[in-house]
C-alpha cells in the first residue's frame, strides 16, 4: 500500500486541516452517499404512498354503490393552484418564467338526513349549479356522477 501525503497541507492551520479531512470523509468516505440514498428512498416512498392512497380511493369508490338521493346545493368553492416554471429549463430564471394555473371545482351538497358532502365537479357542472338548487344527486363513494335539478316552477 502506498500513501500520498501533501507536505504543504500539513503546514496549514490545524483547524482548516480538520475541516478538510471532515469534508473529504463526508463526501468520499460515505456520508454523502448515505444521505443521498436516504433522501432518494424518502422521495420514492412518498410517491409510493400517494399512489397507493389514490388507488385505494379509486378502488373504494368502485366498490361503493351508486346512489341517487334528494339533495340541495349548499355551497360552492374553487381552488386555484398557480405554478411558475423557468423557461428553457434554466432554473436560475435567466431566460424568464412562465406561469400556469389549474382550477379545481367543489360543490357541497346537503341530503335529507342533514349530512353534507363536498364533491369535486367539472368546471361545466360547477357553472350550471347554484347555491340553493334542489334536485337528485347521484354519486358513488366520493365520486360525483351528476345532479338533476328539480323544477320548482317558473312563477312568471
What structural class do you assign from the helix and strand content? alpha+beta
* Sequence of strands across the biggest β-sheet: 3-2-1-4-5
Compute the average pLDDT: 83
Dominant shape:
elongated
Work out the helicity level: 25-40%
End-to-end distance: 101 Å
Q: Uncertain runs with pLDDT below 50, 5 residues or more? A: 2-13
Q: Summarize the main sheet.
A: 5 strands, antiparallel
Rg over C-alpha atoms, rounded to the nearest angstrom: 29 Å
Total of DSSP H or I helical runs spanning 4+ residues:
4
What is the H-and-E element order? HHHEEEHEE
Strand content: 35-45%
Total number of strands: 5
Topology:
Blueprint: H1 7-11, H2 14-28, H3 31-63, E1 66-86, E2 97-111, E3 116-121, H4 123-128, E4 134-140, E5 143-149
Antiparallel strand pairs: 1-2, 1-4, 2-3, 4-5
Q: Would you mind describing this structure in some detail?
A:
The longest helix has 33 residues, at 31-63. The protein has helices at residues 7-11, 14-28, 31-63, 123-128, and strands at residues 66-86, 97-111, 116-121, 134-140, 143-149. It has 156 residues and is α+β, with helices and mostly antiparallel strands. Strands 3-2-1-4-5 form a 5-stranded antiparallel β-sheet.
Amino acid at each position: 500500500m502506498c500513501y500520498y501525503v501533501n507536505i504543504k497541507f500539513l503546514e496549514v492551520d490545524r483547524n482548516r486541516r480538520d475541516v478538510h479531512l471532515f469534508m473529504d470523509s463526508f463526501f468520499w468516505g460515505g456520508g454523502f452517499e448515505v444521505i443521498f440514498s436516504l433522501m432518494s428512498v424518502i422521495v420514492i416512498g412518498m410517491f409510493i404512498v400517494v399512489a397507493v392512497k389514490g388507488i385505494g380511493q379509486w378502488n373504494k369508490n368502485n366498490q361503493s354503490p351508486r346512489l341517487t338521493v334528494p339533495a340541495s346545493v349548499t355551497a360552492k368553492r374553487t381552488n386555484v393552484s398557480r405554478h411558475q416554471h423557468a423557461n428553457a429549463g434554466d432554473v436560475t430564471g435567466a431566460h424568464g418564467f412562465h406561469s400556469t394555473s389549474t382550477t379545481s371545482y367543489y360543490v357541497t351538497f346537503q341530503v335529507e338526513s342533514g349530512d353534507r358532502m363536498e364533491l369535486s365537479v367539472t368546471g361545466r357542472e360547477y357553472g350550471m349549479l347554484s347555491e340553493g338548487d334542489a334536485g337528485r344527486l347521484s354519486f358513488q363513494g366520493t365520486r360525483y356522477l351528476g345532479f338533476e335539478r328539480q323544477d320548482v316552477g317558473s312563477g312568471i
